[in-house]
C-alpha cells in the first residue's frame, strides 16, 4: 500500500516541483511588468500586419464603418474576388502578376543558392591564386546600397538584350555578395580532413560539393532561401526599371496600381496586400530555427 | 592547371555574374559621372562639371542631402540601439522565438503592400486612425494632412521606416547574444561583476563585436538608401521636396529625366558616403580588439 502511494505521489510531487521551478519560481512584479510591456510592443509591431489580414476579409459595410473597427466581424472572401475583377478590367489579369512573381522568385532562390554556394565552397576551401583578393572585393561590395549601381546595371541588362524578359528580373540577383559571405562563414567550419577522406575515396569537387558540403551547411543555404525569397518577392524597383510591358510586371507593382486607385478599392487593396505579405511570413515561421542557427556565424571578422 | 579546372568551373558562374552586375556597374558609374550623357547622344567628357553643379547649383540635391542626413542620423543609430536593446531583452524572456517573429515580421513584409495600412493610419481625413484619435480626445479640431504637409512628412517616413528596420540587425544581435558562452558569465561573476550593465559592457559587447559591426554596416547602408517607403507614403516628388532623399533624386535624374551623367555623379557621392562610414565603423569595431 505504501509502495503504491509512493509510486503515485512521487511523480506528482516531482511534476509539481518541476512546474514550480520552471514556471513560477522567480516571478516578480518587475518581470510581470516587463512581459506586459513587451506584449504591448509586440502588438504595436505586429498591428499593421494584423490589420491588413483583418481588413482583407472585411465585407463592404465594415470597410466604411465609422468609427472604423480593427477586427473583422463577419469575414468574407469577397475582397479577393473583387481583386480579381478589379485587375481583370485592365490589360492583364491579376493571376499574371502572381505568376510573374512566383516564377521569378523561385528561379532566383534556386539559382542564387547554387551559384553562391559553389563560389563560397571554392573560396573557402581552396587557396587558389587571387582568392583573397576576390573575397576582399566581395566584402567591400556589401557596403554599397544597391541603388548606387542601378543605372550602369540597366546598361548591362540592356546590352545583353534581355530588357522586358524574365532574364532581366533573374540574372542580376543571382550573385549576391551577402549570400556568398553567409555561406562561406559556415563552410569554413567543415574540417579539411573530411574533404581529404572523400578525395582519397575518389570523389572530385563536384561530388564533394553535393554529397558532403551542401548537407553540412544546410542552415546556411536555408537562410539564403529566406533572404532571397524576401528580397525578390518584395522587390518593386527592378521590375519597374527593367520592364515596360504590363505582362512582365510583378505583384508589388500591381499593388501600387490597385492602392492608388479609387477609394472603393480599399478592400481589394487590402486583399492584394495580404496575398503579397502572407508567403514571406509563412516561409519565415517554417524556417526560423535554421535562420537563428546561421545568423550567429555571419558577423564580419575584421 | 588541369587539376584545378573543375574548381574554376564551379567558381565561374558566381564570378561572371558578380563582375557583370557589380564590378562593371560600379566602375562605369564612376566613369559616367565625368560626362554629359542623355542616352541619345554618346557621352561627352565634361570633367568635374557634374559635381560642381551638384554641390553649388542644385538646391534640390542639397535638400535631398539634408533630408537623407537628418533621416540617417535619427533612424540609423536609433534602429541600431533599439534592435540591440530589444534583442537583449527578448533573449532573456520565455518564448523568445515567438517574440522574435513578431519583431522581425515588419521587415520581411513588402513596404509597398503595407503602405496601404500606413496611408489609412495617416489618412488626411477624419477616418484616418491618428486623426480620429486626436480629434476624439480633443487635441486637434481639424484633421492633419500628415502625408502632404511638408512639416510632418519626413517624421512620418522616419517613424514608419524605424518600425520596418528592426530586421536583419535584430536577428544578428539575437543570434550573437545566444552565442556568448555561459561559462564566461560565471567566470565574470567570480571576478566580481556586480550588475547586468557591467556584465553587458565587459563581457557581452566585446564577444559580439563581429555581429555589432555587421549590424552597423547594415544600418548605415539601409538608412542612406531610404527610398521606396518614402515614395509609397508621400509620392514622387513629395510636396516641397520635404521627403526627397538622395536615392529619390538619383531616381529622378536617371529614370525620369534621363540625365545619366549627372545621376551617376549623385550615385558616386552616395557610394563614397556609405563606403566611408562603413570603413569608419570597421575601424571602430576592430580597434578594440588589440
Describe the model.
The complex is a heterodimer of chains A (302) and B (290). Chain A is mainly α and 302 residues long. Chain A is 72% helix and 0% strand. The longest helix of chain A has 32 residues, at 94-125. Chain A starts with a helix and ends in a 7-residue tail after the last helix. The relative contact order of chain A is 0.12. In chain B, strand 1 and strand 2 (44-45) form a beta hairpin. Chain B has 14 helices and 2 strands. Chain B has one domain (48-287): MetI-like (MetI-like fold, Orthogonal Bundle). Chain B is mainly alpha-helical and 290 residues long. Chains A and B meet through helix 2, helix 5, helix 6, helix 7 and helix 11 of A and helix 1, helix 3, helix 4, helix 5 and helix 8 of B. Chain A: The chain crosses the membrane at residues 32-57, 97-121, 128-145, 151-171, 220-242, 262-286. Chain A: It is a multi-pass membrane protein.
Topology:
The complex is a heterodimer of chains A (302) and B (290).
Chain A: H1 2-24, H2 29-56, H3 60-63, H4 78-88, H5 94-125, H6 131-141, H7 150-159, H8 166-170, H9 177-187, H10 192-200, H11 205-216, H12 218-234, H13 237-242, H14 251-259, H15 266-295
Helix pairs in contact in A: 2-15, 4-15, 5-9, 5-12, 9-12, 12-15, 14-15
Chain B: H1 5-32, E1 35-36, E2 44-45, H2 49-57, H3 59-91, H4 96-108, H5 111-121, H6 129-136, H7 153-164, H8 168-179, H9 182-190, H10 196-207, H11 209-224, H12 228-234, H13 246-256, H14 260-287
Antiparallel strand pairs in B: 1-2
> What structural class is derived from the secondary structure elements of chain B?
mainly alpha
Number of domains of chain A: 2
C-alpha geometry of chain B: globular
Main sheet attributes: strand count, strand direction, barrel closure of chain B: 2 strands, antiparallel
Give a summary of the structure in a few sentences.
Chain A: It comes from Cohnella pontilimi. The complex is a heterodimer of chains A (302) and B (290). Chain A has two domains: 2-85, no CATH class; 86-295, MetI-like fold (Orthogonal Bundle).
